[in-house]
Write a structure and sequence with these properties.
The chain has 222 residues and is of the alpha+beta class. The protein is built from five helices and ten strands; from the N terminus they run ααββββββαββββαα. It has two domains: 165 residues, Nucleic acid-binding proteins (OB fold (Dihydrolipoamide Acetyltransferase, E2P), Beta Barrel), CATH 2.40.50.140; 29 residues, no CATH class. The longest helix is centred in the first third of the chain and has 19 residues. The protein starts with 9 loop residues before the first helix and ends with a helix.
Length: 222
């Protein structure tokens, strides 16, 4: 990996100073409830607009991320944790002993993390960032976090992001449990109607289509 000294370039110095101030602001709010959160529709619209305005991948872009202090993954089964909702999350806090169930309401974006806007059962929404996932050439973001995907995030960590919005950051792969369409842990309001009526032959066709498109994880998760 090549490295470059950017300390003499004013715009990068200003960017670093701004990020440092954002980090200080976030730490000063540790343990507090977020104020002025955007609505579900505002977050989804803003996210979709940003996806539309993204420059082509062959352009030059600078992606930055603040690495949080090291923390251990959740070592408990989700069944032994207690549910929590977005509205009860506290800033810069690892909610030990808790889990949150979320459903993606936007397509994903990939930068340093795979990101999407996700909602809980109360229709509150928040950005979710999944770090340390497979690279794009190994598995597409659309296969990791497709629109409509339902996840359990164990011991969620709420942070103030660089842009001033709030987000759940996940650094440990084992802290995410992906629920298939048949999982009993899916909230009743999100269960697909007539899911029991899907025939084995229809599943086989769907699985073969996924395999033919080299979407192997999707085929396994049917």
């Amino acid at each position: 990996m090549n490295t470059h000294d950017l300390s003499t370039i004013p715009q990068y110095v200003q960017l670093l100073l701004k990020q440092r101030q954002s980090l200080r602001n976030a730490l000063s709010q540790k343990g507090q409830q977020p104020q002025g959160r955007k609505t579900r529709d505002q977050l989804a619209l803003q996210f979709r607009f940003r996806l539309m305005m993204r420059p082509e991948k062959n352009g030059f872009n600078v992606h930055s991320s603040t690495i949080p202090p090291a923390y251990s993954p959740c070592l408990s089964r989700s069944s032994s944790l207690k549910s929590i909702k977005i509205n009860d999350l506290l800033l810069e806090t690892h909610h030990r002993g808790r889990y949150i169930t979320l459903r993606s309401i936007t397509p994903p974006d990939r930068m340093n993390a795979i990101m999407a806007i996700m909602e809980d059962e109360e229709k509150d929404a928040i950005m979710v960032q999944l770090y340390y996932q497979e690279k794009d050439f190994e598995r597409r973001a659309e296969d990791i976090l497709p629109e409509g995907a339902i996840l359990i995030v164990k011991e969620p960590y709420l942070k103030l992001m660089a842009d001033g919005d709030y987000g759940i950051r996940v650094d440990h792969i084992s802290d995410v449990v992906r629920l298939t369409r048949y999982d009993e842990r899916i909230p009743s309001c999100w269960k697909q109607k007539n899911v029991e009526a899907i025939s084995p032959s229809a599943l086989r066709i769907e699985g073969n289509n996924c395999f033919g498109e080299r979407r192997y994880h999707a085929a396994i998760e049917l």
